[in-house]
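hiii, so i know i said id send this last week but things got crazy w the move. better late than never?? heres the sequnce for the chain we talked about at the cafe, plus the structure i predicted for it. fair warning i was half asleep when i ran it
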Amino acid sequence: MEGGLQKPERYGIDWKNTDYYNEELFEKELRRVANACHGCRRCVSLCNSFPTLFDLIDNSKTFEVDGVEYNDFESVISHCYLCDLCFMTKCPYVPPHDWEIDFPHLMLRGKAIKFNKLKPSFRDKLLTSTDILGAIFSRKIISHIVNFFNKLKPFRILLEKILHIHKNAVLPKFSAVTAKSKFRKLSSNDNFANKIAIYTTCYHNYNEPRVIDDLVLVLQHNNINVEIIKDDKCCGMPKLELGDLATVEKVIQQNSVKLMRYIEKGFKIIAPVPSCVLMFKQELPLLFPNDIKIKKIADSIYDPFEYLLNLHEVGELKTDFKQDLGSIFYQVACHQRVQNIGQVTKKVLELIPNTNVNAIEKCSGHDGTYGVKKETHEIAIKIAKPIVREFNKDKAEILTSDCTLAAHHIVNAVGNKIPTTHPISLFKRAYGIN
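okay and structure toks below
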């Protein structure tokens, strides 16, 4: 029975129930869902989880799900990076359908079971500890040393052998001046009605703070009070993808207190990384459905261009552009697509005269850690190949994505040193702001 036309629904994740970690119950549900996927197969092109699943079935003795060994499903789980595209854009059997299939959250359950059963590798714990990595490697002397060694091929070969981080993967550079330190003395202007608190995200605080610079300037240009949230923690997405739900709970308990201080003062919150926005908007409310603070944060956090488009729709966005941007090749980040806000970045950028945005709704394959691991980097590059083909045909002047890591990964897959920048930096350029 195919799906209907009703809006997809998601249920709370009952991860504190002991049955959630019961492998017998999990296997029963896993096989039920796998059997439905086997009969459908429309998600085969989304990521490597589905081809892996179908290969297991097709190579089994029975050519059916019952011929697959339980332990072999681990490979399916490990290839899922919780992009949510299958749930939001492909699967006809999501709730309120009677089959109530939620493949990403089933994979999350598998990751949580694995995390509780087996100790994660040192590499995986390290890569998902973004606050710790940033705090250590963004120090003035250390950042220069790390950035220097990450460029050396012998060091990258050694890193691959020791930590299994692929030698060809693009690793983030660390900034000696973080966004939070630069804007330590930034104070809002009470003369303006609209107020924004910027959640810098780990990446744009420690690795590319220039994006925060540009976001601040764009908001101030539009007469918006701006403050930087300085004592927040990671959103928890890296630990979620590892299945470490206890740590997710720990960081959100700290974050909810910090963020609520701004919300209670009338601030909206903006984060320039789609994964972080999605975490607060969707994943955390499902993990903690009874937490009122998390619900308020979910209602108050915005993608940068979602907020700018809202300003435009009420006539409050300035359109005093000084420079057009020409042709832009724009990869729509998966974690922005599944927020169901539409192509907000494309709509706002095309307010700029003589600017055309070619939006590509295909996954980059990066997913934070998936694209840098030795065992999955080449797969991540393969997933990006359809974007590379489109880019080579398009011959656009600019390549951009709301997910900066995805943009760097696409450039890596293209094989040429193509300049790329965050869309908010392009918008600042169009304003002519120095």
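btw The mean pLDDT is 92. thought thatd interest u
miss u guys!!
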